[in-house]
Description:
The complex is a heterodimer.
Chain A: H1 12-24, E1 28-29, H2 30-40, H3 49-61, E2 65-72, H4 83-88, E3 94-101, H5 103-126, H6 132-136
Antiparallel strand pairs in A: 1-3, 2-3
Chain B: H1 15-26, H2 30-53, H3 58-69, H4 72-83, H5 87-112, H6 132-144, E1 151-154, E2 161-167, E3 174-183, E4 188-197, E5 200-206, H7 207-217, E6 221-224, H8 226-231, E7 239-244, E8 247-248, H9 249-259, E9 271-276, E10 279-284, H10 285-292, E11 294-299, H11 301-305, H12 310-320, E12 335-339, E13 342-347, H13 349-370, H14 382-388, H15 424-427, E14 434-435
Amino acid sequence: MSNANSNQSPLPADSEVLILSLLADGPMYGYAISKRAAAASENQFRLSPGVLYPLLASLEKRGLITSLWEVIRAERTEQGAGRAIEEAEPARGRRRKWYRLTPRGESHLETRIAAHRAHIALIERFLPARPRAEEAGR
Amino acid sequence: MKRTIDPSRPRVESPAQWLDELAAALLLPFERSEAIREELAEHLRERIRDLQLEGLNETDASIAAVKELGDAAAVARRFRMAERTPHRRMLMNLAVIGIAGAALVTSVIALSAAPTPPATPSQPAQVMAPGAADSAQARLDSALAGVEFAAREIIDFNSRRVRVEHALREALPLAIELSAQLDESSGILSTDPVLRLAPIKVQNEPLEAVLNAAAERAGVRAVVRWPLLEQIGIAPDDLVTLDIPATDLGAAMAAINEALGVFDRQHQRWLDCRVSNGIVEFAPRSFFDLREATVVRYDVAPLIDSGISIEDIRELIAQFVEPNNWADNGGDVAYMKHVGGRLFVKAPPRMHDSIKWYIEQLHAGAQTSHSSGRHGLLGDLPILGSIFGGSVYTQERVPSVLSTPTHLPIGSHADSGRLIGVPDAAVGPAGPAPVGPDR
Lengths: 138, 439
């Protein structure tokens, strides 16, 4: 991905590839995707939830991913976590939305990866063998 | 418009408050809004738990988790963007609206097809036969029988005022409210269908996005006449902040105009809309007024015979009914011409409603001064019978010229010179019937 600085949010186009790549490993729900992205990039990428969930909705709308609701049974919140939310929630069980890649999404991801690699390879041709700063230091 | 910041708004909400704010700003069908809300509630719950495990107390963890989500309105906007496009969904919604609209048309036609005998100047208004209300009720029931409604309530048809409310489908935050008024003396049923919208809550959103989102939420396509609106100072990027409870389209439009800082209804600097055939059209009120203006003939000969001058009648109308619209006053929306005891008026339906009221008052005054003691039902008054031919517009107050006409069109606007649902025969040959080429 293009942003390599510490604790950055990837660009939307990069976020899309990132999400699809993570889902290529298996079904995941939103919060797990954001945690996995942070872990895989050693906290260099943060997928803001305010961007992640609308993006998931968009990918689903385009048929690249599909979703399924899981009913969460008898999971007690620890130390009162989420109490403020539960007060406003209906009495029925909580649910978690899982996403997985569709065949169309897999194909789209392959295309994007190939395009990305071709782009990087092309840029590489124009770059000096070593960074100038490194050469200057010699 | 300048961006405004509400100083009373808390900077960081509780998770539940944030979710409520998001749900209100989503402007998506209820089912979809609730699904998004549920997913993000689950995210918040897990995030708060993780932050607590990292050592934060519950309050700080909640604040931090909500902060990470960012501004609820901005997230809602991203969701709306994500929900856009697929034409299939739009077509599906249009089909639903079309079916419901057809049902309404059917019901209105069924109601207005009441067997009202042709009225003549000498004939008093038809008194509704016993059992006719039951018959009308049965016709409405029959017309709506094949339509699936989430809610249905029909109050006794024998009551003077009838109110019918239907929510089309739970998935669509839109309902059509059909109010009907039964005039017992004439047996005429006038109906007034209006669209009702679910609550709208947006903060500092561009007007263009708000109009499109509201239309999409209602399952109709928005057509906005921006070049015309820009001429009256309303632009797509005007920022609006709205917190409208469930209301009808007219009230929603008034709120939007207020949010835009537009208060000049009389000069037609007013954002208005019409809904028809799965499309909601937004334009300046003057645009609709010119398009919908009809010519109505008012028989003023009895008034002149009673000693009221035509100049006074003209002056009364031009001074009290939207004065700035009249050609005589420099406007270009309404025109009137007196020929041989008949006053021909070309004006939008809204203005005709007001004019009718003033003419009725003049007739009532003239009748009182010449009355031989008869009073009571309008149908008992020969003069009124001759003027209105049995079409009695029972209005208990001055029709508000400020009201936004947002009737769901049943039929073409060429018919808008009369009350929707009033049978042709009831209007009568000598009544205020739309005539002329604009009809």
